[in-house]
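ZP: hey, is the MU-OXO-diiron complex queued? I don't see it on the tracker
AM: it wasn't, my bad. submitting now with these inputs:
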Amino acid sequence: MGSFTAEKISEKVYWVGAIDWGVRDFHGYLTERGTTYNAFLVIDEKVTLIDTVKSPFMNEMLARIASVIPPDKIDYIVSNHSEMDHTGCLPQMIALASPEKVFASVMGKKALGSHFHFGPDAVTAVKNGESISLGESSLTFLETRMLHWPDSMVSYLDTDKVLFSQDGFGMHLASTERFDDQLPAWILKQEAEKYFANILLPFSPMVTGLMKKLEELSLNIELLCPDHGPVWRSDIAGILKSWKEWALQPCITSAVIIYSTMWKSTGHLAAAICDGLVSQGISVKVMPLDSSHRSDVATAVLDAGALLVGSPTINGQMFPDVAAVLTYLKGLKPKNLIGGAFGSYGWSGEAVKQVEQYLADMSIPLVVPGLNINYIPCDDDLVEARELGVKVGIELNRRCSS
Ligand code: FEO
């Protein structure tokens, strides 16, 4: 099984997860700092495993469990979320431990059945608000549908005041440190925001609902345990506050310019637009798509009030990497943005209209009509591009101050 040890994180709870130092692509999300698959072992009369890990990491989890208790002593397994980074080795764990019960939400039972073709009695469905006794402690389940799957739920351990929040409040960050206060705050902010932008953004209204629900419940949370990244123990209030703000996507006087360019013409337009925005006091992030990953664009857009998109026309189409990023962003449904389109063309020039259509589909209003330049922009064209930036900047300032 290898040499891996569990880490005690509270009176009854051990971290028994796995560290994936090498993963860099998680469904198209650039995980530059790797990730962890967190699983937690609760030691009580009923020994309970909360979530499991991605299947290649099963032996690491087993070794950590075995450093506390023989794995076949597990009585209950709770699956808070059916996605396979947390359930990939669930069938093997069930075979190995023969637990009395495997618990999941009603939708979780369905999803696990569809993943692993379990029989009807393999998983016990728990209802929203239901509690089970583990002995001294009890575990209460709260459904968090569409955060970020229909099956998602969180579990609260009353004695140790631990909320096991599956993907919620997580981040992709591999580390030997288990707690938030052992890691630099700026890295936590960066990775938590990237995680929110790329995973939770489409479900922002549900996040707002969850945050209200947590406030109403007034749960006393001393440890917030996501399935990825560090356990929150020092800045629980901070991560809850950040989620609340990110879900609301307030007006921000920042802009993101993304573009591709063939012979630098669209790049020159991007630079002039940037200059115009800056003249209005707007903070600008320019992201050429040959060196900017789509998941970093998504994070930047969460921190912006305007999105400007530039593309040359190639064979009657926008550049493929522009189309790829727009497709990705459209699925993430960012809110409260204004936009603009620009580009250069040789003889037909369809790309700018195509970008405008994408922005319209994303409910991003255009401040001015798209700027479409033939071949290489002249000085007047660059003045016009700068003016586009000025107009977007003025409109963004107006929106954010109203
Ligand atoms: Fe970490 Fe949605 O799985």
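AM: back. Residues 81, 83, 85-86, 148, 167, 227-228 surround MU-OXO-diiron (CB under 6 Å).
ZP: great, adding it to the tracker
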